[in-house]
C-alpha cells in the first residue's frame, strides 16, 4: 500500500521525536521527483539515497538547497560522481573507500564529510568497520594525511528483527563506541559529532539511545517502488 499524505506523515513523525534536535533524513530511494518535492515543500531539506545513479539523476531536477546524503553501500568506482555535490556520506565502510573519497575530493579541492559505518548487527549481511579497525585507523597516522575528508562521526544499521532488546543493545554499543572516541585526542579532520542510527521501524529506540540522525523512508513515503 502506498501512503500518499507525505506532509501529514512528516508532521506525525516529527511530533513523535523524543529528541527534537535529531535530524530527519528522508530516505527517497525509488521515489519519484514529485514525492521528494512534496517532502521539500513540507520543510525537509535532507534526503538520503542508496544508489549513485538515482542521486545523480534526481539532484539536477530538484532545488539546489537540498542536502544529499549517501546512505547505501558505495562502490569505489562511483565515488567521483557524487563527491562534487554530496552533503554527507554515511556509508563509508572501509579504509579503501575512504582513500578513494579523499582522492576524488582532492581533485576538486573539496573537503568531503563522511561517517564511518560500523558493523553492529548480528547478521552477516551488513557492511562496516569493527572496533579494532576503527581504533587502529582513528588513532593512527594515515588519517592525518587525508586532507580532503572530514570524519563527522559514526553510522550503524541494527539487525533486521522484531526483538527490541537486540536492537537496543546494538544501538547502545554504537553509542558507547562513539563516546569512547569522542573522549580521546583525535586528528584535526575527525570530529565525533554525529551518530546516524535508526530507520522507519526503530527510529524512536535509536533516538532514546543517542542518535543525532535518523534515516526514515517508508514511514514518510510509503512502501518502496521496485522496478
The tally of helices reads: 9
Estimated share of beta-strand residues: 15-25%
Q: What is the CA–CA distance across the termini? A: 16 Å
Q: Order of helices and strands, N to C?
A: HEHEHEHEHEHEHEHEH
Strand order of the largest sheet: 7-6-5-4-3-2-1-8
- Outline type: globular
**What would you say the CATH architecture is?**
Alpha-Beta Barrel
CATH homologous superfamily annotation: Alanine racemase
Number of domains: 1
The average pLDDT score comes to: 93
Q: Summarize the amount of helix as a percent range.
A: 25-40%
Gyration radius, to the nearest Å? 17 Å
**Low-confidence stretches at least 5 residues in length (pLDDT < 50)?**
none
Q: Main β-sheet, in a few words?
A: 8 strands, parallel
CATH class identity = Alpha Beta
Number of extended strands: 8
CATH topology: TIM Barrel
| Structural class by SSE content | alpha/beta
Quaternary state of this entry equals single chain
Topology of helices and strands:
Elements: H1 6-16, E1 23-27, H2 33-41, E2 46-49, H3 52-58, E3 67-70, H4 79-82, E4 88-92, H5 95-107, E5 112-118, H6 131-138, E6 149-156, H7 164-182, E7 190-196, H8 203-208, E8 213-216, H9 218-221
Parallel strand pairs: 1-2, 1-8, 2-3, 3-4, 4-5, 5-6, 6-7
Amino acid at each position: 500500500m502506498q501512503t500518499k499524505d507525505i506532509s501529514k506523515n512528516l508532521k506525525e513523525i516529527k511530533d513523535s521525536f523524543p529528541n527534537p534536535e535529531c535530524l530527519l533524513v528522508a530516505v527517497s530511494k525509488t521515489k519519484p521527483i514529485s514525492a521528494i518535492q512534496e517532502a521539500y515543500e513540507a520543510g525537509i531539506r535532507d534526503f538520503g539515497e542508496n544508489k549513485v545513479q538515482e542521486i545523480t539523476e534526481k539532484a539536477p531536477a530538484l532545488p539546489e538547497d537540498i542536502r544529499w546524503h549517501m546512505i547505501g553501500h558505495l562502490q569505489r568506482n562511483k565515488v567521483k560522481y557524487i563527491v562534487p555535490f554530496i552533503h554527507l556520506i554515511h556509508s563509508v565502510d572501509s579504509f579503501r573507500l575512504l582513500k578513494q573519497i579523499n582522492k576524488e575530493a582532492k581533485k576538486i579541492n573539496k573537503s568531503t564529510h563522511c561517517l564511518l559505518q560500523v558493523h553492529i548487527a548480528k547478521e552477516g549481511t551488513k557492511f562496516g568497520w569493527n572496533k579494532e579497525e576503527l581504533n587502529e585507523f582513528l588513532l593512527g597516522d594515515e588519517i592525518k594525511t587525508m586532507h580532503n575528508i572530514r570524519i563527522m562521526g559514526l553510522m550503524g544499521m541494527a539487525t533486521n528483527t522484531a526483538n527490541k532488546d537486540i536492537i537496543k543493545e546494538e544501538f547502545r554499543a554504537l553509542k558507547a563506541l562513539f563516546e569512547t572516541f569522542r573522549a580521546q585526542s583525535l586528528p584535526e579532520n575527525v570530529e565525533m559529532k554525529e551518530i546516524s542510527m535508526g530507520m522507519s521501524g526503530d527510529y524512536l529506540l535509536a533516538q532514546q539511545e543517542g542518535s543525532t540522525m535518523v534515516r526514515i523512508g517508508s514511514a514518510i513515503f510509503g512502501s518502496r517502488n521496485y522496478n
